[in-house]
Amino acid sequence: MQYRIDPKSGNALSVLGLGCMRFPRGVTAQIDAEKTERLILSAIDGGVNYFDTAYIYGGSEAVLGELLHRNGARDRVFLATKLPPQQCGRREDFDRLFSTQLARLKTDRIDYYLIHNLPDAALWRGLCAMGIEGWIAEKKAQGRIGQIGFSFHGTRQAFAELLDEYNWDFCQIQYNYTGENYQAGRAGLERAHEKGLPVIIMEPLLGGKLANGLPAKAARLFREADPDLSAASWALRWLWNRPEPTVVLSGMSSAEQLADNLKTAETAAPGMLSEREAAVFAPVIAALRAAYKVACTGCDYCMPCPQGVNIPGCFAAYNASYAMGFVTGMQQYITGTGANHIERRAAGGRNCVKCGSCEKKCPQHIEIARTLDAVTRRMEPFWFGAAMGIVRRVLR
């Protein structure tokens, strides 16, 4: 295992982290504790020391806490979990949720604590109005929170603004070779790194789609370049080739996935790709984009939208729904538009008023208003509003 130093704390973090949202589950959808225990202990034995969970990850915190406690492994790892802002209406909610998380995780501290899916500065300011800055300072002084950060699904501009809103210790972004200009993107990654923040990478494999859901041509290109490397290995190596990512989270759910990722992590280092290997990604990305419906490059020239529509995010999710499957696209659409946030209006295609300001700035000459109508028809079907209402009530 290779390690990269968190410059804020000095902690040596494993380049491969275990994302705990996709623990093995049985036929009843309950987490399989026996398989999960083997997975966790094997990961620790392999050098993984960063474990990422969240309050809303259906049983994940409790299972992780129990297994670490039972095996005396708590002090061998750095625990990361997340505060759900959707459930916060006043300062007392911070303590209520945090206490529940400590109990679930059977610990007296959280090493890396995140505000979950913080989409923009406006929501952060709402939390500040409830007193979250003082609360964080209090918990840090008590040793209950080590490092404070946020996870992000939003626009590049919103990410840049958030970085400057608070003295963050770290951040977590979605990033992979298919999305250099998606959400925070490469520009956000580099800016966070320049500010001295460790950057945790989530969705390096797009929920497994970049491991076993690639179009046939893209998968063949990887095999021809090196038949001994899995598609997942190519994706991880692309990330570790850069100096900015501190930890790359992989939602491993089987011994085979863990073994493959551990093997790849053994040689993880900036500049690890040869010129020949690095050149493979361009045709692979081209093969993926051949399945896209909108020729959006994510340049953000169309932004900001006067109505708050996340235009590049809508198009990226729409394209993913065809290239990677509808479920993957819908997941990106929900997080990218903020549809799962209480008191937030989903900034999706339905909010376009066809003012035309974006189309004048688009270098690809996309008919944005008309295309957003197509996005709305696919990504906001008749049941979408009701489903999001239920989700928000559950999260509340």
Short summary:
The chain has 396 residues and is of the alpha/beta class. It is 44% helix and 12% strand.
Characteristic key phrases:
396 residues; two-stranded antiparallel ribbon; alpha/beta; TIM Barrel; 17 helices; 10 strands
Could you explain the architecture of this structure?
The chain has helices at residues 33-45, 60-70, 91-105, 121-129, 132-141, 156-163, 185-194, 209-212, 216-225, 231-240, 255-265, 275-278, 281-289, 311-323, 326-337, 368-379, 384-395; strands spanning 3-5, 12-14, 16-19, 50-52, 78-83, 110-115, 145-152, 170-174, 199-202, 245-250. The two termini are 40 Å apart. The protein is globular, with a radius of gyration of 20 Å. The chain is 44% helix and 12% strand. The model has no long low-confidence stretch (mean pLDDT 90). It has 396 residues and is of the alpha/beta class. It has 2 domains: 3-279, NADP-dependent oxidoreductase domain (TIM Barrel); 291-395, no CATH class. The chain has 17 helices and 10 strands.
Distance between the termini: 40 Å
Q: What's the overall average pLDDT, rounded? A: 90
Q: Please give the CATH class of the largest domain.
A: Alpha Beta
Strand fraction band? 5-15%
**Biggest beta-sheet profile:** 8 strands, parallel, barrel
Number of domains: 2
Order of helices and strands: EEEHEHEHEHHEHEHEHHHEHHHHHHH
Number of strands: 10
Assembly status: single chain
Report low-confidence residues grouped into runs of 5 or more: none
Helix proportion of residues, in percent?
40-55%
- Structural class label: alpha/beta
Counting DSSP H or I runs of 4 or more residues, the number of helices is 17
Question: What is the CA-atom radius of gyration, in angstroms?
Answer: 20 Å
- Cross-sheet strand order for the largest sheet: 3-4-5-6-7-8-9-10
CATH H-level superfamily title of the largest domain? NADP-dependent oxidoreductase domain
Query: If you consult CATH, what is the topology of the largest domain?
Result: TIM Barrel
- Under the CATH scheme, the architecture of the largest domain is Alpha-Beta Barrel
Shape: globular
